[in-house]
Design a protein that fits this description.
Structural class of chain B: mainly alpha
Radius of gyration of chain B: 22 Å
Oligomer: heterodimer
Largest sheet of chain A: 3 strands, mixed
CATH topology of the largest domain in chain A: Alpha-Beta Plaits
CATH architecture of chain B: Up-down Bundle
Order of helices and strands of chain B: EHHHHHHHHHHHEHEHH
CATH superfamily of chain B: Formate dehydrogenase/DMSO reductase domain
CATH topology of chain B: Formate dehydrogenase/DMSO reductase fold
CATH class of the largest domain in chain A: Alpha Beta
Number of strands of chain A: 11
Shape of chain A: globular
Radius of gyration of chain A: 23 Å
Number of domains of chain A: 2
Number of helices of chain B: 14
Chain lengths: ~280, ~425
């Protein structure tokens, strides 16, 4: 799915651009500067030419730097880094029982609308209501793919369609998923859905296909563009602040500092899958 | 002593042959239609869901794959364990194995969400997946049994490879069934599975189911082709099946006792064994009473030694019990909810902590039966083309030296049953 940048000599993004939908905005600006220099150079003085070239260089690179800050968390031609481990912290004390805004936001973002058949409709994220049998302590919390370090779904997938990105996000490559559903059998969190019907309301950043398995992508498309996760964004907008996203490998990140300050648990820690989703207040 | 055994193709010209072949064709066509219906509309038209992700097609597929491995055991008993009385059956044993495996894989493949991507499963591997290993084991079995059959059937060049091929086949089929059992044994998250005993349990199951299927095919073939089937063959098959069925029962007991001993697994065990649901019924009535105790009596009761009716009935009951057992393992194991938060009462908008509902639909059942049809069709056509079965399996051909009398005495069998020639 990658396209080659055609201006490899001049563009700082030379190389492969990861997604077809991303255009190499830098190219047009830098080459534009060079071309104008060539054309005008024969007609005007050397000083003008040098001044013009320098101006074009400064302006174009200024735009590039601005864009790179706004658009990308990393240069688009670089793969995700192992130095990052994305994680999510759910503060169940702030998660309201009647609220399902994270579920709604996820559904809208990825377009996994159902067909009114709960047993076969996709469910990337769901709300659970828990009550301790011994104490009566009750909470509600969202459950989704736990983005394990040692994901059983990845282990069992015969074709390697289930895979874990270097930054810890567990995804399904829908191009090589054969729909055997073994990953659904293996997932300890019941976090995966099989696409039982032809999807509708497809979103360009989340291609889905009948007969394949899918699950929470941790909004990888948003992370790659330095945008907050859909569920986190909605939860924050509503003022609940129950979800905190960040780099677990960065001790200065908010999530790491919160985890260092307060006790947290993960679901089924006995399985030693080392999930990237933490829960506080359980 | 088997130089006198003459193998012959079946004619395949009788009206019964063509009628049976037509029936097989109809079932295959129905299975293909069912697969198309499921793929075209999506799996929501089946009873399967996000809770019960493997349904009736997998029950059929696993049964046929296990039967394939078990049917091959007849040949292994003859070659590896030197029980030469089984040798005249060895070719047919290999054929039934290949045919049954083909039937099972057909069902499995046609139930995939994307069967059109089958080639991907053959070129893109994740070697940590037992599923990927099984792709090798299944496809490899076709090759290795094909070679084994050639070594048995080609007296000029093949004979020298007979023993190595026999041992390789025996080891391969053990690995294959271990792999099939481990598909479930390696599922760490589900309390009903996740146990090393699944591999030997599946091996024992394969012995019993494979023998039952093989006996039914053998007796039917002999009946329709007018070949005599002596008491010696029937009696040895009967006793052998009794032993492997008892072994299966032993592993079933160990499987459930182990789970009952573990506190964390007691709930799922109680659900399966005493839940008062379809799985409890299938376990106690079909698997244990109909599929284990009743056939054990029919197979091991001395007065029924060599009794054709008892053997046929026992084989049918073993097949029925086998289906119930696989259904209970596959569907029952999924129906019980995952335990995400032990000690908590859990409810959700998505079937957490609830028993997963499952009712098989017609397309699933038709697809499953088409696997059987594929098996029977391959056996029928192959037997008209190549010499898989002797002209006669009467006692004088199979056991001219009356070795069975010595073996019967060693086994403590009462040899008062009348010799039966079934033509």
């Amino acid at each position: 799915m990658s396209t080659r940048c055609t201006c490899a000599e001049t563009c700082q993004q030379a190389g492969s651009v990861p997604r077809r939908s991303l255009s190499c905005t830098t190219c047009t600006r830098t080459t534009g500067g060079s071309e104008s220099t060539k054309t005008v150079g024969t007609m005007v003085s050397r000083r003008c030419a040098i001044t013009g070239a320098l101006s074009a260089f400064v302006v174009s690179h200024g735009v590039f730097l601005l864009l790179s800050k706004v658009v990308a968390a990393k240069p688009a031609d670089q793969s995700v880094s192992r130095t990052i481990r994305w994680g999510l912290l759910v503060d169940v004390t702030k998660c309201t029982e009647g609220c399902s805004s994270c579920v709604d936001a996820c559904r809208e973002e990825h377009g996994w609308t159902g067909f009114g058949r709960p047993a076969t409709d996709p469910q990337w994220i769901r709300k659970l209501f828990l009550k301790d049998r011994a104490t009566g302590y009750a909470v509600s919390l969202p459950i989704m793919c736990q983005h394990c370090e040692f994901p059983p779904c990845v282990d069992v997938c015969p074709t390697g369609a289930s895979f874990r990105r270097a930054d810890g996000i567990v995804l399904v490559d829908r191009h090589i998923c054969i729909g055997c559903r073994y990953c659904m059998m293996a997932c300890p969190y019941n976090a995966r859905s099989f696409v039982h019907e032809t999807p509708r309301n497809q979103q360009p950043h989340t291609p889905r296909g009948k007969g394949c398995v899918e699950s929470c992508t941790l909004c990888a498309h948003r992370i790659d563009h330095d945008r907050p996760l859909a569920c986190v964004e909605r939860c924050t907008e509503l003022g609940h602040q129950a979800l905190l996203f960040g780099n677990l490998n960065d001790p200065r990140s908010d999530i790491s500092q919160r985890l260092a300050s307060y006790a947290s648990v993960r679901v089924r820690p006995d399985l030693r899958t080392n999930p990237g989703i933490y829960y506080q207040g359980l | 002593m088997y130089t006198n055994v003459t193998y012959r193709e079946i004619e395949g010209r009788s009206p019964q042959y063509f009628i049976l072949l037509a029936v097989v064709g109809v079932f295959i066509a129905l299975g293909l239609c069912a697969a198309y219906y499921m793929e075209h509309n999506g799996h929501h038209v089946t009873g399967m869901s996000n809770q019960i992700v493997w349904g009736m097609p997998h029950v059929f597929a696993v049964f046929l794959i296990l039967a394939a491995s078990g049917a091959l055991n007849i040949a292994s008993v003859a070659s590896v364990f030197e029980r030469t009385m089984y040798k005249p059956l060895a070719r047919m044993s290999g054929l039934v194995a290949i045919a049954s495996l083909a039937g099972g894989l057909t069902v499995l493949i046609l139930d995939l969400g994307r069967p059109d991507r089958l080639v991907l499963a053959m070129v893109t591997y994740n070697f940590k997946s037992i599923f990927a290993w099984n792709v090798f084991l299944y496809t490899g079995l076709f090759g290795i049994v094909g070679f084994y059959l050639w070594s048995m059937m080609d007296s000029r060049y093949g004979m020298r490879f007979y023993k190595p091929a026999a041992f390789a086949t025996f080891l391969w089929r053990l690995a294959l069934t271990t792999g099939t059992g481990s598909i479930f044994g390696f599922l760490v998250a589900r309390d009903a599975y996740n146990s090393a005993i699944m591999a030997p349990l599946f091996i024992a199951m394969s012995f019993a189911f494979g023998k039952a299927v093989f006996i039914l095919i053998l007796i039917t073939t002999c009946h329709f082709t007018g070949r005599s089937l002596g008491r010696v063959v029937l009696f040895r098959l009967q006793r052998l099946m009794g032993i492997v069925l008892a072994a299966t029962g032993y592993f079933v007991i160990v499987q459930h006792l182990t789970n009952l001993y573990m506190a964390e697994r007691q709930m799922v065990e109680m659900f399966i064994l005493f839940g008062g649901n379809v799985y409890s019924f299938l376990f106690w009535v079909l698997q244990i009473i109909v599929g284990t105790i009743a056939p054990l009596i029919l197979l091991l009761y001395p007065r029924l030694g060599g009794n054709l009716g008892a053997i046929v009935l026992a084989s049918i009951l073993v097949v029925m019990g086998g289906f119930a057992q696989i259904y209970t393992i596959i569907i029952g194991g999924q129906a019980f909810p995952l335990s995400l938060f032990p000690g908590m009462d859990v409810s959700s908008t998505a079937f957490d902590a609830t028993i997963g509902p499952y009712i098989p639909t017609l397309p699933e059942v038709l697809l499953g039966f088409s696997g059987f049809a594929v098996m029977v069709g391959i056996v029928m056509i192959a037997m008209t083309a190549l010499r898989f079965l002797p002209l006669s399996l009467s006692d004088s051909v199979v056991d001219p030296d009356h070795l069975h009398e010595i073996l019967d005495q060693e086994d403590g069998a009462v040899g008062d049953a009348e010799a039966k020639n079934f033509t």
